[in-house]
Amino acid sequence: MTLTHFDAEGRAHMVDVSDKAVTDRVAVATGCVVMAPETLALVTAGTAKKGDVLGVARLAGIMAAKKTADLIPLCHPLPITKVAVELEADEALPGIRITATVKTTGQTGVEMEALTAVSVAALTVYDMLKAAEKSMRIEGLRVVLKAGGKSGTYEAAP
């Protein structure tokens, strides 16, 4: 398998997608922020000092997906048609589970946009709760679904 972001001389370059078909594309990424039960209680009770942790993190994730091409050097700017970021408190973790779904109709996929949305949402959760707990961990960032385009559908094992 060759890496598409390198030319024949091994130099990094942006992949030419001009010959690719325009298709509907979707990507779903997940991750979580693991924290102490007491920190999670601040989120679920709505008593975190900085306010609505999940609402702010949701907006941050949406904004991040739209800015992915500004952050990742070889990503194409894409006409994103949907970004949904879901954050769910999970006492069994304990922490916050994050899922981002990104859609476009274009010549390249939106996996990086979905991963960026989850990453920034998780960083925002950390930022909003760090006064209560600095030992939180961001874990499990991965693409769980990719559909559309020449390579077809990818679905991660559970």
UniProtKB/TrEMBL annotation:
Keyword DNA-binding: no
Gene3D superfamilies, per database record: Molybdopterin cofactor biosynthesis C (MoaC) domain
Key words, A-Z: Lyase, Molybdenum cofactor biosynthesis
GO MF term list: cyclic pyranopterin monophosphate synthase activity
Annotated EC: 4.6.1.17
Top-level lineage group: Bacteria
Pfam families linked to this entry: MoaC
Enzyme class per UniProt: lyase
Database matches in CDD domains: MoaC_PE
Ranges for domain Molybdopterin cofactor biosynthesis C (MoaC): 14-149
Pathway given in the UniProt record: Cofactor biosynthesis; molybdopterin biosynthesis
Family matches, as InterPro entries: MoaC, MoaC_bact/euk, MoaC_sf, MoCo_biosynth_MoaA/MoaC, Mopterin_CF_biosynth-C_dom
Signal peptide coordinates: none
Quaternary structure and partners: Homohexamer; trimer of dimers.
Functional description taken from the UniProt entry: Catalyzes the conversion of (8S)-3',8-cyclo-7,8-dihydroguanosine 5'-triphosphate to cyclic pyranopterin monophosphate (cPMP).
Protein name: Cyclic pyranopterin monophosphate synthase
Organism field: Frigidibacter albus
